[in-house]
Write a structure and sequence with these properties.
heterodimer, A: about 230 residues, alpha/beta, 6 helices, about 30% helix, elongated, B: about 210 residues, five-stranded mixed beta sheet, three-stranded mixed beta sheet
Chain lengths: ~230, ~210
C-alpha cells in the first residue's frame, strides 16, 4: 500500500515536471511595407539564406531548411534550397562577400552575369535570416556509473536556451525591402536521472522556426498564423 | 596454462592500447565539392603548376591530439575548377619546366604556407575552425616573376550538427577551401602586380567588386 503511494507520488511529480518543462515562450515582432500579399507570379521563387559573416556565431543551416519547409508547406510558395542558390551564384553570396545591404545587392544586379542568372532561375525574393540559438544557463549534473552488478545514473540537470532570429525580405525585382520578422524564443530543458535518465527537452529552435516560418508564409498567402 | 593466460593478457593489453591510441587521433582525407564560379573569363591561357608538395599535401599535428589531414586531392579539385573558370584556357602542369612547351600567357604556382586548426578541446567553443595560408607565385610566359601573393582562407563549422569529429573537421576544411575559391575569384585580378600585367594586356574585365556591404 505504502509502495503504491510512493509510486503515485513519483508519477505525479514526473507529470508535473514534464508539464512545467519543455514549455517555450515566443515573442514575434513584425513589420510590413504593405498589408497586401506579396506579388509572386507563376514560377517565381523565394530563397532563404542564413547570415554567416559574424565571427562569434552563424545562422544554422538546419534552421534555414526548417523555415524553407514551413514556408513551402502546401506548395503555394516555391522555395529554392539555400545550398543550391549558393552554388549557382558562387562565390557572390559566400559569407566573405555576400551583400549586407540592398545598395550592394543593387550593384551586383547591375552586372548582367548575375542579373541574367537571377532572371533565369526566376528568383524574386531573397529572405535573409540572421541569428542563432544558444544555451544561456546550465545547472546541476547527472552522474552515471557502471559496476559488475549493473549500472545507472543519478542526478538532475537543467539548462535554458534562447533562440533569437530576424528575417528581412528583399524584393529583387523592385529592389526594396518588403518587411521584417523578429522572433525570440526561450525555454528550459531538464534531465532527471534515477537509474535511467529521463529527458524533458524544450524545442526552442523548433518553436522559433514555426513562429518565423508561419509569419513569412502569411506575407505571401495571407493566412493568419496560429496564435 | 599460465603461459597461455599470459599470452591472452598481453594480447588484450595490446588491443586496449591500440584502441586508446586510436581514440585520441583524427585522420581524414578532405573530400568536398566545389561549384563552378560565376565570373567573366579572362582571355588568357594560364598554366597551373601543381607540384608533388601541393598535390600530396598532408597536414599533421601532434599537439594534445594527433591530427592527420590529407588536403591534396581537394586542393587539386578546387584550384583546377577556379582557374578553369577565371581563364579561358587553363592547363594543369606538374612542374614549372613544362610551361615552355605549353605556350601559356601566365604561370601560377600555388604553395601551402600554413594550416592551422582550432578544435573544441582547445578553445572550449563548440566550433571547429580551419585557417589556410597559400603563397601563389605568378610568372609571365618568359618565366619572369610577376607577383607573390599570400592568400588566407578561413572555414568553420558547428560540431553539434555533425556526427563525428572527422566529419566536422572535413566540413570546416571544405568551407576554408571554398573561401579560398572566393579569394581567388574576387582577389586574384586585384593584386597590384597582376592587375598591372592584365592592364598591359588590355584585357581587364570583372564583376563589380566591393567590400561586400
Amino acid at each position: 500500500m505504502k509502495h503504491s503511494a510512493i509510486t503515485h507520488t513519483i508519477t505525479f511529480a514526473l507529470m508535473m515536471l514534464s508539464l512545467a518543462a519543455c514549455s517555450t515562450s515566443t515573442i514575434i515582432d513584425e513589420y510590413r511595407e504593405t498589408s497586401l500579399d506579396l506579388e509572386l507570379n507563376g514560377g517565381e521563387q523565394v530563397v532563404i539564406m542564413g547570415r554567416r559573416h559574424a565571427g562569434e556565431y552563424e545562422t544554422e543551416p538546419d534552421f534555414i531548411n526548417c523555415i524553407g519547409n514551413r514556408l513551402a508547406n502546401g506548395g503555394k510558395v516555391s522555395v529554392m534550397p539555400e545550398q543550391h542558390f549558393l552554388d549557382s551564384f558562387y562565390p557572390w553570396f559566400e559569407p566573405r562577400v555576400a551583400p549586407l545591404k540592398l545598395k550592394r545587392m543593387g550593384m551586383m544586379l547591375n552586372d548582367p552575369l548575375i542579373a541574367e542568372r537571377i532572371n533565369g532561375l526566376s528568383i524574386r525574393y531573397l529572405i535573409w535570416v540572421d541569428g542563432h540559438t544558444e544555451t544561456t544557463e546550465k545547472n546541476g549534473s547527472v552522474s552515471c556509473a557502471l559496476t559488475l552488478g549493473g549500472g545507472g545514473c543519478f542526478g538532475f540537470a537543467t539548462w535554458d536556451k534562447t533562440a533569437s532570429y530576424e528575417a528581412t525580405v528583399w524584393d529583387l525585382k523592385k529592389l526594396d525591402e518588403k518587411g521584417r520578422v523578429k522572433v525570440s524564443t526561450e525555454g528550459s530543458s531538464y534531465v532527471l536521472a534515477v537509474v535511467a535518465p529521463i529527458p524533458f527537452i524544450a524545442q526552442v529552435q523548433g518553436a522559433a522556426c514555426v513562429g518565423i516560418g508561419d509569419r513569412l508564409k502569411s506575407f505571401f498567402t495571407h493566412v493568419e498564423p496560429e496564435p | 596454462m599460465t603461459k597461455l593466460r599470459a599470452a591472452r593478457y598481453s594480447r588484450l593489453a595490446l588491443l586496449l592500447t591500440s584502441v586508446l591510441t586510436g581514440a585520441c587521433s583524427t585522420d581524414i582525407i578532405v573530400d568536398g565539392d566545389y561549384p563552378s564560379a560565376l565570373t567573366r573569363q579572362l582571355p588568357h591561357h594560364v598554366g597551373l603548376v601543381l607540384d608533388d608538395t601541393f598535390t600530396h599535401y598532408t597536414f599533421e599535428s601532434s599537439e594534445e591530439q594527433d591530427v592527420t589531414m590529407a588536403l591534396g586531392e581537394s586542393q587539386i579539385e578546387l584550384f583546377n575548377q577556379i582557374f578553369g573558370d577565371i581563364f579561358q584556357n587553363s592547363t594543369t602542369l606538374s612542374t614549372i619546366n613544362q610551361t615552355s612547351s605549353k605556350k601559356v600567357d601566365l604561370v601560377v604556382v600555388p604553395h601551402v604556407e600554413e594550416v592551422q586548426l582550432a578544435m573544441p578541446f582547445e578553445t572550449q567553443l563548440n566550433v571547429f575552425e580551419v585557417w589556410l595560408k597559400y603563397n601563389l607565385q605568378v610568372f609571365d610566359s618568359e618565366g619572369e616573376p610577376i607577383a607573390d601573393w599570400l592568400m588566407t582562407a578561413y572555414g568553420k563549422t558547428q560540431s553539434r550538427l555533425l556526427t563525428s569529429e572527422e566529419e566536422a573537421l572535413n566540413q570546416a576544411t571544405t568551407e576554408a577551401l571554398r573561401d579560398a575559391g572566393v579569394r581567388l575569384v574576387v582577389g586574384f585580378h586585384k593584386v597590384p602586380e597582376i592587375r598591372d600585367w592584365l592592364a598591359s594586356q588590355q584585357t581587364f574585365g570583372a564583376l563589380p567588386q566591393g567590400d561586400g556591404q
